[in-house]
Amino acid sequence: MAFIQKTMDRQAPQAARGFWIRAGTVGMSINKKLKYAIVLSGGGARGLVHAGVFCALEEAGYPPPSLIAGTSMGAVIGGLYASGMGGAALKRYVRESLDIGSFMESPVFRMDGPLGRFFQTGQIIGNIATRPGIDSGSKVMELLEELTEGKNIEECQIPFLCNAVDLNAGQEVVFRSGSLARAIRSSMSFPFFFEPLVDGRYCLVDGGVVENMPVGLAREAGKKLGIRRILAIDTRRWDTIPSNSLKNGGEVVLRCFDVMVHIAEECRRKGPAGGGQLVVHAADGTSPFDFSRKQQLLDLGEAAIHQSRTELGAFFGAGPMPAMARRRLRECGIDTNTYFSGGIHAGTG
Description:
With 349 residues, the protein is an alpha/beta fold. It is built from twelve helices and 13 strands.
């Protein structure tokens, strides 16, 4: 593109007003004081790419977000970042310390091998028959309290919000204040897996049930903060599957959830996006429950940002040329599936 000049080994001089730089490898002026919201989709293990995204954005010199909105695992990663855990620290925690077994209340979920799987199957069957979820979520609540240092959302360094769904009233619930850990726990209460979080009159489950990528919530909240641009990170990947591929009840539940999210996101994509929204795709087909691929998912998040530097240069830029580019460059990143009608859409930078 003619308006993009790549500069691999030099930085632009400071402009007269003092806050323009050249970020990464894109020769376009970047407003370091830009106000924008970052929206992080849910997706279980897939959501670990968000840690890589934050790390890559920092390393490229882009300004921090003025608002973070997340759903499910997006709420986990986004909430930790908003509370003060930097990109490098977040990436290190995911790579070195995050263990899905530490989320689980029952010790059988930390057992490996055939015997472990045998006991886990028994535990799952027993819990499903007698409780509203495989796991109570008490262990993950303790861990979230520790990681967030007991902060309230109002104490976050970056304004934060996340969503959940109230099964009693059938309505979306948005958390903008109160306990950060409880808000995250509510947003990540994947049905069937974690028990709903009961809070007063609310019975709360995963926000992805109604809005897996809460762009609308971020746009509405951003109006009060003077935010007009939204950077959304989408970890979903949609594939059609053969009719005999669903082998058990858990796979059926997961597929139902995927279909629900897919339909909702298709409706969102068909709506008006506006020139201030950029969606970065980071998907490789990882199962939402495959936490063994932590490093690959972190790498995927970083790669999605690196390969989207042209689009990000336009997103963070100011002036007529970036504005013209933003009207055309609305989706980028990495998606190994031919999800879009035009085939694979990879970053052009």
